[in-house]
Amino acid sequence: MKQVVFFILSIISIFSALMVISRKNVVHSALSLVLLFFSTSGLFVLIGAELVAALQIFLYAGAIIVIYLFVIMMIDLRKGTTDDIGTMPKMFIVGAGVLFFAEIIYLLSKANYSGIKDIYSGEKIKELGGMTGVLAKIMYTKYLYPFEIVSLILLIAMIGAIVLAKRADKK
Amino acid sequence: MALLLLILESLLIFVFILLFCVAYIILAERKILGHMQGRFGPMHTGWHGMLQPIADILKCLIKENIMPTAADKIVFILAPVMSILPAIMCLAVIPFSKNIYAADLNIGVLYLLALGSLGVYGVATCGWAGNSKYGLLGSIRSTAQLISYEVPMGLAVLGPVMMARSLNLIKIVEAQKSFWYILIQPVGFFIFVVCSAAETNRIPFDLPEAETELVAGFHVEYSGFKFVAFFLAEYMHMFVTSAMAAILFLGGWKGPFFPGPIWFMIKVYSFLVLYIWARGTFPRYRYDQLMQLGWKFLLPLSLANLVLTSIGIVIFG
């Protein structure tokens, strides 16, 4: 049963990922990306990570892609399609994609899973009272420092956006 | 067998809510609004118009389905589906009583918030797909509005979650055994009420479909069954947010004398009447007022509420 669901979800993921990069119409790409987030969050549910699945939908599908869509609708891309992008930017995009993919493969091959497996197995997490509590506890004790740095970076990005918007307003 | 029973049970709950509650919220709205304005509302179909919602839906089903020639066909057809699907999916985790629910998720609140934020896709894409100015304006307004009000709503919901120390809806209700959370979270409840009115596009925040400016707003190009889908989605969304208010702030199914589901429905419906009352009372906000209210008043207020709640929990909890 689990395997069948896994295969269905994987096929949907791959199909929608291909749709994202092959559609000429940007709105169709964005909507395919939403489908991709849904199917991957289904995969997360399958391995028992329901919190990650919910966050995936809440943050990516519910917030980020909505803003993409908002921008796309505002600038009216009905006429302009991906054909209008020149060769040089396209080469750069492909290069960046290949580099990123190679990096992921390299990191996955080097990753050490045994440490995580022993401390936080599925049964252990259930025993401790579910994924949310466990994650919160680690995040606010062991990884507090990186967590605070991330929030500081986000704050800087926010202030930067406000400053840029203000300057445009005065002219 | 257990799975079959579960599916049957969920189907029953779903049909009950869809056909009964949602359809009769529409009738209740028309009747209550009518009486507020010194008229009767629908009177002719059945006793005091009791069969009116069924007649309305049947009428819309047999109407012609118009597709604008310049529309993006796939997205145009998908938009009503995208708008009604999250609303239906939300019903899966709503506990009507201790035992009546389709799914008992550990992250119930997060699930509701996540799916609630997806409703914007139907609204955003349908105005764009119809290739109409009014529709697009309605969509853009709606997207901005939904994004702005999602933030304070999520923060307001966190108050009860922190006090119950769980994201599980059933555990949150159980934690309100001795007192309802509205008593210690009145500010949170107020923010939740305002934001949920904005999230469901209700007056005084119904700018996406402001009839006087945008004809009918985002679904202006839709007719027949697709229009019904949008209509039902809006009312189902209202039902879900009312249920959330009942669970998070009003003690869910808890109450004396009556069995759980009846108390739950009483709470949900009194919240729905509040929506209708607001529609009969308040004028529509202007767009900049809406944004100011969201970002400059509700967001700081909800943040302050969150900080105070955490301090209170540390001191008294």
What does this structure look like?
The complex is a heterodimer of chains A (171) and B (317). By secondary structure, chain A is mainly alpha-helical. Chain A has a domain at 1-80: Four Helix Bundle (Hemerythrin (Met), subunit A). Helices cover 83% and strands 0% of the residues of chain A. Chain A starts with a helix and ends with a helix. Chain B is an all-alpha fold and 317 residues long. Chain B has one domain (63-316). Chain B is built from eleven helices and no strands. Chain B has helices at 2-36, 52-61, 73-90, 108-129, 133-164, 169-175, 186-199, 211-214, 224-248, 260-281, 287-316. Chains A and B meet through helix 2 and helix 3 of A and helix 3, helix 4 and helix 5 of B.
Sheet having the most strands of chain B? none
Structural class of chain B: mainly alpha
Give the N-terminus to C-terminus distance of chain B in angstroms: 44 Å
The number of E-state strands of chain A comes to 0
Per-chain topology:
The complex is a heterodimer of chains A (171) and B (317).
Chain A: H1 2-22, H2 26-46, H3 50-75, H4 87-110, H5 114-119, H6 122-127, H7 131-141, H8 144-170
Helix pairs in contact in A: 1-2, 2-3
Chain B: H1 2-36, H2 52-61, H3 73-90, H4 108-129, H5 133-164, H6 169-175, H7 186-199, H8 211-214, H9 224-248, H10 260-281, H11 287-316
In short:
The complex is a heterodimer of chains A (about 170) and B (about 325). Chain A is built from 8 helices and no strands. Chain A has about 170 residues and is an all-alpha fold.
List keywords for this structure.
heterodimer; A: mainly alpha; Four Helix Bundle (Hemerythrin (Met), subunit A); 0% strand; B: 317 residues; mainly alpha
